[in-house]
Design a protein that fits this description.
- The complex is a heterotetramer.
- Chain A is of the alpha/beta class.
- Helix content of chain A is 28%, strand content 24%.
- Chain A has five domains: 131 residues, 3-Layer(aba) Sandwich (Rossmann fold), CATH 3.40.50; 176 residues, FAD/NAD(P)-binding domain, CATH 3.50.50.60; 58 residues, no CATH class; 166 residues, 3-Layer(bba) Sandwich (FAD/NAD(P)-binding domain); 66 residues, Alpha-Beta Plaits (2-Layer Sandwich).
- In chain A, helix 5 packs antiparallel against helix 18 and helix 12 runs parallel beside helix 13.
- Chain A is globular and about 90 Å long.
- In chain C, 48% of the residues lie in helices and 10% in strands.
- Chain C has 13 helices and eight strands.
- The two termini of chain C are 24 Å apart.
- The model of chain C has no long low-confidence stretch (mean pLDDT 94).
- Chain D is of the alpha/beta class.
- Chain D has a single domain, classed as Rossmann fold, CATH 3.40.50.
- The radius of gyration of chain D is 15 Å and the shape is globular.
- The relative contact order of chain D is 0.24.
- The chains are: A alpha/beta, B mainly alpha, C alpha/beta, D alpha/beta.
- Chains A and D meet through helix 3, helix 4, helix 5, helix 17 and helix 18 of A and helix 2, strand 2, helix 3 and helix 4 of D.
Chain lengths: 662, 126, 261, 146
């Protein structure tokens, strides 16, 4: 018989305000095997843990139940506490009477009854717990960063600086990401390329960093400390070692009509191209879909003009397989498609553009050479209208329910830059709320209004109608005046909602990392573990986790690197001992369990078995504890009931069921 | 919540509390200029429980039920339905109409389609 | 192809053209339209109140009749189409309306929204196909610049009407193209003409129509096309531009206009 | 409705996978979203750990409803666990129907760690449904009652 101690936490008033803690203690004390029960205001505090430790020692407890917050919060804390007091850490069970009880109920009687039942279930389970010993696994001291934007670059640099090798995988021909497309950055207005390029160069030159551009992650296996990743390097058709980056091939390429992705398709590019002048690596790729040589077999001009002999039409995709201890997802974002927002006439007029397109128009290397002009006729606009929250804060199913966070600030930036460079241009911003929570952010927005005379109107736009003369009639509302207003504009800029890059979803399933309804990756804890995925060994950097501006992205990238370094600094990891095992007397070697195991952790051995005095050789399932992750799929599949899972055994779960239905 | 507000929410099946006060309904409304109380103010009055203010609004008869506000509302508040629900509360309570059958003949002309008469009558009286 | 056909009250009176040409075109395209024996006016407007049942019953009757015949139901009038589709949506998705309507109607078999409601434009696009239609055109309307006017009832609310993109529709433009003419796209083609407000306030509808017409003319439209008798009435009252029902131009292109008259 | 019916407090067990649904339930809690106290959650590593026998046992023991929550298909922490769950539970549910248990006493729902609101809504709806069904008398085994 176990000697069980029950510890009920008040969590200040978080639990005690709705659950009568003393009654829970009283009820628990009456349960069979319970030799000690007590409450305390904060069980997780040092004093609370000391109480638990002394009770374990003084009363010789063999198992404890802590009635407190979610085990996802403090199970580890109490296990360590038990271990320090000499109790096996797996002899600890948590009854979640906060998240699953006190916080969701109002009626004290009801909540107290439920807390008692949850405590009983945990006591019933702990009766059947057995001491478990964690195993150990090795850590591959190399990290993989997926995505080569500012988030990925910063994370990689920080990890590399700590002395660990890092690989960056970027699907585009160059690293740089969205930040490379921006003209200026808020709230300081420094030039985006000027602050990004040095970081790109540093990453490329760093002895600990390898960069795979034009590459994608194809397959991920393994687990924390020991991932194996297949990376597909798309055929570049250019030999990276031979190419000198002279650019002659791009100049001579006769296929020039491909929409230029880097310029948001506002301009065109050649079929052999580097996305932008400061590209890293400065080695072009051949876009085979648009290359005349690949389409018709006739051309080969780039090969002819290349003095270095770097052009290689025979290259094919290459798969690199590498081992990593940690994986960082930094896949960034794109703007949403506007095809469900016809009222803004984005598809009907060239002069209705997204803010990211405006970045390219404002940029000296962009399609208009940095000159603000209408894409329809090249004329300078006189009247510009910015519309905020296009597709953000939309709960009607057309857009995104969240705030994209960066639009208020970049719109203020755009408005300010335009008024500064072209004082004759009138700028109006339609906004619902101006959100500027950041250092020097509100001051920045106010400068746009007070110093630069940007006209901010509180209200949304209902329709943008192209007029026969090529201008745009913007019908909006002015909520301060309580009326509808109309502005005839030359250009309209839409602050389009951002969404996670489409690659995030596929990647999340490969990594078994969870993802929310908007396809943002979920963090292990929204406040306390914001850069870790719930899947051990997977970390989140930048907008893949949620909308962020550059300063925030860089901070998060650094935090993410710190977590990765913390992992890679370890020589070995303790593994989860809650693994499956088979009962050799029941196992008939049918292979059903091995067929459902996602980790290939089950193999078969011929073993001598003594079955009630009958000796014989049998084929028995054997679980490799280093590979088993403890999902339990095999336990249910096993037709003879031979497979069971430690920590969540059949008997333990049934004991919980019985306690709940009692 | 007042009984009237509750009735309006029930008849309309729309929830004014979802409104984030962006004003897109008013911006999308082709007759907002004619209305004494604008579509977005309907949502906000209802959310504040000031529904009695709305009963005498000319908006009830200016609204065309063209659904531009409903289609473009980013929060699925459906202002057009709210306006119609208030209008129904008025006609049902008052038992009299904005338009009476006696007034009709002088408004008719040769080309006027039946659809117009039926629609107007449905909207203006009960 | 066989459908139940609901003309609606206006098409029996002021909008005879819309109906007559629709029938002629359907015949020319091998579409059989069967008008139910007795039907009533759909009500012209969809009753917005969630507690209104009686004004929906006429529509339910027509829908249930089509279900009994095992046909999908085709309409050409924007208003009828609007009412029928929305009532049908209620019968399908709103348990309260479904239950109460069935209790009132005392039908042989309960009606639960199983009838597919189609606008003739949908039939032309999705069943006949504009490519096939193009082949059947004998008098192409070459050189004509035509602005399609959708108005409000045909498209909104988009999730129930599902006829086209409610903000940037193209079905009528595609039709115009199939007839050999040139569609003129203008932004106010889905804005309301003023509807029944013209009964009491012609000035207001005038201003609304002016904005639509100014936009259409500005982009080069020589004539307008509509599916709605009320839009036709309002636009004609305020415009020098000829306004046609889409069925009339369709009949002309298919070479069945004379015969239909 | 008799007084007894109104006072009917169903016993409901919710098996939740540790990675998605249990975390979703935690989020519902920390967001203070209300759902009935009748729901008692049992934590399992993966929804595929739940043996149909556990569910039958729960009913034998007098539970009125059992809900099994896991990660959305495609998002399983163990890659494929919830696909097994889906298949097993589909069979179990048809079996239960076959033996005459009211439809809807067993339910499977996918709730992610980010869907606190969905968790609460699902539980509210499920409890409501079970209340409407009334007490589980068909599978309850009196011999199993303590």
């Amino acid at each position: 018989m176990q000697k069980i101690g029950v510890f009920v936490c008040h969590c200040g008033t978080n639990i005690a305000a709705t659950v009568d803690v003393l009654r829970v203690v009283e009820a628990a004390a009456k349960e069979p095997g319970v030799v000690h029960a007590q409450d305390y205001p904060y069980m997780c505090s040092e004093a609370g843990q000391a109480l638990i430790a002394s009770a374990i020692r003084d009363k010789g407890l063999t198992g404890i139940v802590v009635c407190s917050c979610s085990p996802r919060m403090h199970e580890a804390t109490f296990r360590k506490c038990a271990e320090r007091a000499g109790l096996n850490p797996y002899m600890v069970e948590i009854a979640n009477i906060r998240e699953h009880c006190s916080w969701i109920h109002k009626d004290m009687e009801e909540a107290t009854q439920k807390a008692i039942i949850l405590a009983r279930a945990a006591i019933a389970k702990v009766h059947l717990n057995t001491p478990l010993a964690a195993g150990h696994s090795q850590v591959t001291k190399r990290a993989l960063v997926i995505g080569g934007g500012i988030a990925g670059i910063q994370t990689a640099l920080d990890i590399a600086e700590a002395g660990y090798p890092v690989d960056i995988v970027e699907k585009n021909p160059s690293i740089g990401g969205r930040m490379a497309q921006l003209d200026k950055t808020f709230p300081t207005l420094d030039c985006s390329a000027c602050i990004l390029t040095p970081k790109m160069v540093e990453a490329a030159a760093h002895p600990n960093i390898r960069i795979f551009t034009y590459s994608e992650v194809e397959r991920v296996t393994g687990f924390v400390g020991d991932f194996t990743v297949d990376i597909r390097k798309h055929a570049r058709s250019v030999d990276m070692d031979k190419c000198t980056g002279c650019g002659l091939c791009q100049e001579k390429c006769p296929s020039r009509k491909t929409p230029d992705e880097f310029n948001r398709a506002l301009g065109t590019r050649s079929a052999i191209y580097t996305p932008f002048a400061q590209a890293i690596p400065n080695v072009p790729v051949i876009d085979r879909e648009h290359c005349i040589k690949f389409k018709t077999g006739k051309c080969g001009l780039c090969q002819t003009v290349c003095a270095a002999g770097a052009i290689d039409y025979t290259q094919s995709d290459e798969i690199v397989s590498e081992k990593y201890g940690a994986i960082v997802v930094a896949t960034g974002f794109d703007t949403i498609k506007l095809d469900r927002f016809g009222e803004y006439a984005y598809d009907q007029s060239k002069d209705v553009i997204t803010s990211l397109e405006l970045e390219r128009i404002m940029n000296a290397a962009g399609p208009t050479g940095g000159h603000l002009e209408r894409l329809s006729d090249g004329r300078m606009p006189r009247e510009m209208v910015f519309i905020q929250c296009v597709g953000s804060r939309c709960s009607d199913g057309r857009g995104k329910s969240y705030c994209s966070k960066i639009c208020c600030m970049y719109t203020a930036k755009h408005a300010m830059l335009i008024r500064d460079k072209y004082p004759d241009v009138n700028v109006t911003v339609f906004y619902i709320d101006v959100r500027t929570p950041g250092k020097n952010f509100d001051e920045f927005y106010r400068r746009a209004v007070e110093q630069y005379g940007v006209n901010y109107i509180k209200g949304q736009v209902g329709k943008v109608a192209p007029l026969p003369d090529g201008r745009l009639r913007v019908s909006g509302s002015d909520l301060i005046d309580g009326k509808a207003v109309e502005i005839t504009a030359d250009m309209v800029v839409l602050a389009t909602a951002i969404e996670p890059d489409p690659s995030a979803r596929r990647l999340a399933s490969m990594l078994t990392a969870s993802i929310d309804t908007n396809d943002f990756l979920t963090e292990a804890h929204p406040k306390l573990r914001p850069v870790e995925s719930p899947t051990a060994g997977v970390y989140l950097s930048g907008v893949s986790q949620g909308p962020k501006d550059i300063p925030e992205t860089v901070s998060q990238a650094g935090a993410c690197a710190a977590k990765v370094i913390g992992l890679l600094a370890k020589d070995r990891l303790t593994t989860n001992p809650c693994t499956a095992h088979s009962d050799q007397l029941l196992c008939n070697g049918c292979s059903a369990c091995a067929n459902v195991c996602p980790y290939g952790a089950i193999s078969y051995e011929q073993r001598e078995v003594n079955d009630h005095g009958v000796r014989g050789e049998r084929r028995i399932a054997v679980v490799n504890n280093a590979l088993c992750q403890g999902c339990g799929a095999c336990t249910v599949t096993c037709p003879s009931g031979a497979m069971d899972l430690q920590g969540f055994s059949n008997r333990q779960l049934i004991a919980e069921v019985d306690a709940i239905c009692r | 919540m007042s009984e009237l507000t509750e009735r309006i929410m029930e008849i309309s099946g729309a929830d004014p509390r979802k409104c984030m006060k962006c004003g897109k309904c008013t911006a999308a409304c082709p007759v907002a200029g004619e209305m004494d109380i604008k579509p977005h103010q309907f949502a906000s009055c209802l959310a504040k429980g000031q529904s009695d203010l709305l009963l005498s609004s000319n908006t009830l008869h200016k609204c065309l039920s063209c659904f531009a506000c409903v289609e473009r509302c980013p929060r699925d508040v459906r202002p057009g339905r709210l306006i119609d629900a208030v209008r129904q509360c008025v006609v049902r309570a008052r038992g009299q109409a904005f338009l009476t059958p006696e007034e009709i003949p002088e408004l008719l002309d040769d080309e006027l389609p039946q659809q117009l008469l039926v629609s107007a009558f449905r909207r203006y009286r009960r | 192809m066989k459908f139940s056909y609901y003309p609606g009250c206006t098409l029996k009176n002021k909008a005879k053209d819309l109906d007559r040409y629709a029938r002629a075109c359907a015949a020319a395209l091998g579409i059989e339209l069967i008008e139910p024996d007795d039907w009533q006016c759909c009500g012209g407007v969809y009753p917005l109140g969630k507690d209104e049942i009686a004004p929906k019953l006429a529509a339910v009757r027509v829908l249930a009749d089509a279900a009994e015949q095992g046909n999908q139901l085709v309409t050409v009038c924007s208003a009828c189409h609007h009412v029928l589709k929305r009532v049908n949506d209620d019968m399908k998705n709103d348990a309260d309306t479904r239950e109460r309507a069935n209790r009132y109607m005392d039908l042989q078999r309960p009606y639960t929204g199983q009838t597919g409601v189609l606008h003739l434009l949908e039939v032309l696009r999705d069943r006949v196909g504009f490519d096939t239609l193009k082949e059947k055109v004998v008098n192409p309307l070459t050189g004509k610049k035509i602005g399609a006017y959708y108005g409000c009832l045909l498209l909104r609310p988009g999730d129930v009407m599902t006829l086209d993109d409610p903000e940037n529709p193209r079905v009528m433009e595609d039709l115009i193209r199939a007839l050999g003419a040139e569609p003129v796209v203008y932004p106010y083609r889905n804005e309301c003409c003023g509807g029944y407000v013209s009964l009491g306030d012609k000035e207001l509808t005038g201003r609304m129509c002016d904005r639509i017409l100014e936009s259409a003319v500005g982009f080069g439209a020589q004539m307008l096309l509509t599916a709605c008798p009320l839009c036709m009435y309002n636009l004609r009252a305020h415009s020098d531009l000829p306004v046609y029902y889409f069925t009339e131009l369709l009949a002309e292109a298919l070479g069945v206009k004379e015969a239909a008259q | 409705m008799s007084i007894d019916d109104r006072d009917f407090r169903p016993v409901i067990a919710a098996f939740c996978c540790n990675w998605c649904s249990y975390a979703g339930a935690d989020l519902a809690g920390s967001s203070r979203m209300k759902y009935p106290a009748e729901v008692k959650i049992i934590r399992v590593p993966c929804s595929c750990r739940v043996n149909p026998m556990f569910i039958l046992r729960t009913f034998e023991k007098g539970a009125d409803g059992v809900i099994l929550c896991g990660c959305h298909p495609g998002d399983c922490h163990y890659s494929t666990g919830n696909y097994y769950t889906r298949r097993r539970m589909a069979s179990l549910i048809s079996l239960m129907e076959f033996v005459g248990l009211e439809r809807g006493r067993v339910r499977v729902e996918w709730v992610s760690a980010a869907e606190g609101a969905k968790f609460a809504e699902t539980m509210n709806e499920f409890v409501e449904h079970i209340r409407a069904l009334g007490k589980n008398t068909r599978l309850e085994d009196l011999r199993c009652k303590n």
